[in-house]
Queue: 2 jobs
Job 1
Amino acid sequence: MENNIKNVICSAIQSKKMIKFNYEDSARVAEPYCYGESKTGNEFLRAFQVKGKSKSGKPVGWKLFRASKIKSVAVTDKYFVIGHHYSKEPVIKNSHCCIKL
């Protein structure tokens, strides 16, 4: 993944701001929680999607986004509060920047 995209995502995680981005040709809006490496060595973003489309047919909910498919990411001006849906359960190893509680 391009370093500046990774930096944008990490900045959003640290400031608890939502991001908007394109993924698999669909616009998405999400609360970013964790960015890191999977067991297979691929980079992923763990986020709670709040708006947009999804191939699964579920546009809202927890998602793992493969970093190499994330395009045109931008930090919005909307903050998010860690809600009851947040779990500290690790799903990504070697996390580069997890949300600060």
Job 2
Amino acid sequence: MPRPSHCVAVLTALVLLTAPAASAQGVPQEPPPQHRLVYRNLLVARLNPLGLLDEARLSYRYRLYRSESPALRDNFVSIGLAPGVSPAFGRLGVVAEVQPLSILQLWGMYEFVANFGTFRQLQSFPSARSDFSDTELYARDELPAGDARRPYANTGTQLTLGATLQFKVGPVVARSLFRLVRPDMSLREGDRVFYDIYYDVLAPNRGWYFVNDADLLYQTGRGLTVGLRWASSHAFYGPEHFAPGEPQENLNTTHRLGPVVAYTFAEREGARFNSPTVLLMVNWWLTHRYRTGADSSAFFPYLALGFSFSGDLLPAPRP
């Protein structure tokens, strides 16, 4: 039967460093140690939209209680740092997590964000109805220096509240990762929203939006995992995110669906370098203002290729 650490590696790669997955049944294992210092790292390249990101997390974990039950054994509270960097931006976050059960994790992260003004970032707009298609983003990037519509460097903060619900029954894993995000960026005067390349969302500044990733996976027991992902996003625009007199209609909800394949080369619970995993995701846009034919073909998928690994800097004692 696949071990929980295999599931950890796959879900880490799938959701940009989410919580470890849980077994609803399986062979009892020794609980993790009371005190742990753990890290995770993910490098991802993607297309439609274009992106390159390396994101890490380093956390101290304290086990809440001792249990050998698969549904209870992975419990903890934690505090840590979450750095991330790409050619377009850098982020540094403080993250707190509580996982009372193996199947449920609640977390919050407060990040400091700096956009470098490169690779068409950052671009902001006066309205949630503004054109933020790839064609428009590329055209703005080609404007002469001094044009107010060009991408520009800026800084800000972002609060993310998340919940992860996950189950594992035999070789089948189901998981949903919900994130509620509130950015607070220093935008150009007169602009109310900005394009967030991280989530591919026209984000309401000082407003909220949610992103959810749902996965249904099958583990072969030999390191290979295959499955489906459904991803969605929705922004909660207020009247302050539209130009005066505009219809206040949200045009920017998104959905995409497609297969994922991941392979974990090796795993050993408690190891300092553990579960190196490669991931390929191919999703097709079902709902998107620009990626279902208006600006790019609906047949052109979202593509992501990633490599992740994790480990314990205070590993579990070996027998």
